[in-house]
Amino acid sequence: MPAIQFFEEDISYKLKNKTLVRQWIKDTITAEGFKLKELTYVFCSDAYLLPMNQQYLDHDTYTDIITFDNSEIEGDIVGDIFISVERVRENAAKFNIPETDELHRVIIHGALHLLGYTDKSVVTKKKMTQKEDEYLNKRTFNS
């Protein structure tokens, strides 16, 4: 079983270039000095993600991503990342960028959370965006 898996919940969604995306995520984790153990991405709808956002984060809003860090050993990456495909599509349209680029940004955003990056303040959000851009630029495949 691959260390990175992709699933769908309540929607039908097929990620393009799965093998290349997996390698890109692994390379990101390694470059940051961590060891990948197990990472699951779940593509879902707003309706699926909203109750999770309410229950676990006490936010009553739609969100594009929720990341759960299940690591028990420092330096090991174990987590579950839920991504609303609806939010990704809407954000791509809002920012006038290709949907795949926005999806990859959100995918790497979740991994960066597991690597210790946060986006709760202006300063940490700026650093997170810089890291997203850095790793998006390191993709070796067409979006």
Quick structural overview:
This protein has five helices and four strands, in the order βαβαββααα. The chain is α/β, with parallel strands linked by helices and 143 residues long. The chain starts with a strand and ends in a 7-residue tail after the last helix.
Q: Can you tell me about this structure?
A:
This protein has about 140 residues and is of the alpha/beta class. It has a single domain (about 5-140), classed as Metalloproteases ("zincins"), catalytic domain (Collagenase (Catalytic Domain), 3-Layer(aba) Sandwich). It has helices at about 20-30, 45-55, 85-95, 100-115, 120-135, and strands spanning about 5-10, 35-45, 65-70, 75-85. The chain has a four-stranded mixed beta sheet with strand order 1-2-4-3, sandwiched between helices. The longest helix has 16 residues, at about 100-115. The radius of gyration is 14 Å and the shape is globular. The two termini are about 25 Å apart. The mean pLDDT is about 95. Its cofactor is Zn(2+). InterPro entries: MetalPrtase_cat_dom_sf_prd, YbeY, YbeY_CS. GO terms for molecular function: metalloendopeptidase activity; RNA endonuclease activity; zinc ion binding. Its EC number is 3.1.-.-.
Core attributes:
5 helices, globular, alpha/beta, Collagenase (Catalytic Domain), 143 residues, 4 strands, 4-stranded mixed β-sheet
List the helices and strands and how they pair.
Elements: E1 4-8, H1 18-31, E2 35-44, H2 46-57, E3 65-69, E4 76-84, H3 85-95, H4 99-114, H5 122-136
Parallel strand pairs: 1-2, 2-4
Antiparallel strand pairs: 3-4
Helix pairs in contact: 1-4, 3-4, 4-5
